[in-house]
Amino acid sequence: MASSRNIYKREIDFRALALESPEFAKRLKTNDQLDFTDPESVRQLTKSLLARDFELAVDLPDDRLCPPVPNRLNYILWLQDLLDTSSRTGDDQYDPNRQVLGLDMVLLQSDIDDRNISSSRQTVSKNKLENRVKIIETKPDDPLIPFEKLNVDRLDFVMCNPPFYESEEELTSSAAAKSRPPFTACTGSAVEMITPGGEVAFVSAIVMQSVDLKTRVLWFTSMLGKLSSVSVIVQKLLDIGIKNWAVTEFVQGKGTRRWAVGWSFSDWRPRSDASRGITTLSKNLLPFPSHYSFDVSIKPNDLLKQAIANINTDFSSLRHFCYSWISKQSCIGYAKEDVWSRKARRKFAREQGGKEQGQQSDKMQCSNDGKSKQMEEMIENAALGFRIDLSLQADGSVHVVIRWLKGLDQVLFESFCGMVKRKIMEEIRA
């Protein structure tokens, strides 16, 4: 995917960039084209884009990788989508007032290469970002996520651009197998591009370390250079019992494609557009959709009002269940367990000695501000968190979207969606 928020959605206007960057103008051909096979031209493009669009002054070593800015921005924006849409607020929206640079967080970068470390520290110092970016030197035998050296208890995310190849031979054969020369010149060093076992082994090591770290990191993520590697990594995640993961594809213009995998031990779920971004991946390797939608097309008077009333009627009778309307047409709620199915209702009736009225005594109350202790406990222990949005369509029908906010049991989510649809449809047709 190319994020809708990426400022490079359209091809870069080289002529306009040249007018703002004299150094880039020197690299531009008379036909306003750039020679992407020339390493210095590629480096200057990166430096000029970072200077113009992010106000960053960067010096790039001529013997190290020069990642394309648009592609890496897509990675950052995807990370931001994962974080924003799997938050505890249920707002499900990107905050447009937040800067992209560093996601407004302190970034901790680790590397084993002296040249990269030195260059990175110079860049941080030159841009006066010492309070935002820390460069950590690690050793080859250190954990890939070196918590002891990072000196923090938790991380919001891990992002990684692993070495793609396992040998010089694989790198060479990969280039030879392309139908045409690489789109951009390759200036990377062996330490950046080659690792025993290639990218699959490298990311697999992060997967295994994540089993120990669990919720100390909210989202583990890594870029991948081959689509086939995505399938292998996702299968490893399934093998260790991960139930909350995300995949995506980074496509920028006519350039090289890259892919990414993310996973979390949290039960807060991202939106489907953030988690199911590879359409060519096998269905069993895609995470379950985190939204369900349907239309109520029967047209009595005040159909929207009736649909909301039906939701209120049924939800208010459920125990271990709380919800609140955050707007006139949107509600957020949580359930401790399945309390809506016939089986669950019969079980509760038996526990109460057949006294149906006893169900109300065990009902959870939610405060609208979401700050009560009871609400916090309910959210923490909920097996299901959801958001329902209703909107009136031009033809008078109502569009209903149920978003899976929290939980690891897809059967429970499907059951809940079925109940909501059934109750709305039954009452309106009655």
TrEMBL record:
Its EC number is 2.1.1.-. GO terms for molecular function: methyltransferase activity. Residues 357-369 have a biased composition (Polar residues). Residues 350-372 are annotated as: Disordered. S-adenosyl-L-methionine binds at residues 72, 111, 161. GO terms for biological process: rRNA base methylation. One of its GO terms (cellular component) is nucleus. It comes from the Eukaryota. Keywords: Methyltransferase, S-adenosyl-L-methionine, Transferase. InterPro entries: METTL16/PsiM, METTL16/RlmF, SAM-dependent_MTases_sf. Belongs to the methyltransferase superfamily. METTL16/RlmF family. This is U6 small nuclear RNA (adenine-(43)-N(6))-methyltransferase.
